[in-house]
Amino acid sequence: MASDQRVVVVGMGSEYRRDDGVGLAVADRVAQAVDGVSAVGPLSDPLDLLGLWDGADLAVVVDAVQSGAAPGTVQLIELDITSGRGAAGDPSGTTSTHGIGVAGVFRLARAVGSAPKRVVVVGIEGQDFSQGTGLSPAVDRAVEHAARHVAELIGEGR
Amino acid sequence: MTHGSGARRTVSVEGISRVEGEGSLLVEVRDGVVEEVALTIFEPPRYFEAMLRGRRASEAPDITARICGICPVAYQMSACGAVEDACGVTVDRRIGELRRLLYCGEWIQSHALHVYLLHAPDFLGCQDAVELATLDRAAVERGLAIKKTGNRIMEVVGGRAIHPVNVRVGGFYRAPSRDEVAALAEPLRRALDSALATVEWVAGFEFPDVEGEYRFVSLRSPGRYPIESGRVVSSDGIDTTASGFADLSVEEHVARSTALHARIEGRLDYLTGPLARYALNANELPEVARQAAAAARLGPVCLNPFKSIIVRAVELVFACHEALRLVEAYEPPDLPAVAVPARAGSGAGATEAPRGLLFHRYELDGDGLITSARIVPPTSQNQIIIESDLRRVVQGALDLSDEELTWRCEQAVRNFDPCISCATHFLDVTVVRS
User: Fold this and answer.
1) What angle is formed at CA B358 by the lines to CA B353 and CA B360, rounded to 5 degrees?
2) Mean local confidence (pLDDT), B178-182
3) Whole-prediction pTM
């Protein structure tokens, strides 16, 4: 297994908004399972990806999503290296004070030549985003499943 | 997005969005007069104050840091200040200087982010930082490099670049070594040069000719530009402690918004943030920052909210210069933290977050548990001013097209670098003309 590729696994969200903490839970699980990978997060502002992922061969950004799917559903979205857009469209709210999305940050990183070679967004469907800590059962069960997907992604490049 | 027919026009902008927030700005114009400006926030109020009740006072810095991903240090420092005030503890000078260095890191990160990626595109006719990067890649690279220097300070002093983990009540878990801190000097020298270039860059922007009438409130700390400590002062004569200011400031619930609006009791609104800090403390800036301000023709008080970007750039010069001074003078404290024995009482902590005054007030019991907490972020304090400023800006710009007016409104909101994740979130702008 070649270990010279640089992989960054980032958990987005807030562990104080229940299922919004799933990103970090998955990133931590991946870091335990895969040698040489460390988890970063929780990040609440995608702009913080700049600098963290510079020069990475693969950046995996894990976050809770609300798409209407069943809670715990795991979706992988590879951002298009040429357009910076993901299969789910462009989620960047680029005019916000802090609200530039992952795809927007990716496009910005490309514009200044610091983008990772590959960016995959892993979305886990959340159920409960109320105040407080702890994941709801379906989302908690999805952590292992999502972590396996991420480990496979990392394995493909090695 | 523009709707309307005849004399009545509605302009709305969507896309100011983020996962956790929902809010809107509505501007109503009737017969050429701005009648209503309402910042409406739908986001559920944040329950951090309730979450703190029953928790140990020592947990407050880590819990409240999670209110904001942009200014966690501000929350940590105000939380530490409030607990230490309640327990009657003052930290060692060297711990205080290390806190100031960490806080400089956050100012550098936050101001570089706002100036380059969030606010500058407004002035240069760009939709966003991505478009700006295609027009002026060197400028965006300069901004990102400055921000990175802030990140390095956060890593060295705070333990990591985002949501630092090294802060505790009484000081730090671990004081960095001399060598670790000394390694920050070279990047800071480069960042200082870049910050000076930033002032020159933004001073060349075109600014709408608007002046506000502000009651400024900021910290004041004799002999130094305020960051992590000081008394709370105002342009109309308030001069009090953090605790005294917590008594003076009242928060009101406004039906349309889940963010509280803060006022000074018996008075109206007030403004915190760069314009206020600069107006009340410009004489404490180091020579290099004063010269940069003078070259940008800033004057001792800046009342044009659009020029807050220049003030922010001047503060960037200050923060880089101050961080460099602290790095060069660094002596590790004998112990990374002082003991803070529990005692029953109340205490307040006020510090200058990049976007303005942030104060916390806690009541503690004799076991060191928090029995009540009040956290007042800068954006809550500035919210009324944001609305009154928009009223003035729109009134003076009614000749603009809907599209241009909407742009101007968004720009006017961004003048205040509002941290919607602290006060809640901000979503869309609607202008109704009839």
Assistant:
1) 140
2) 97
3) 0.85
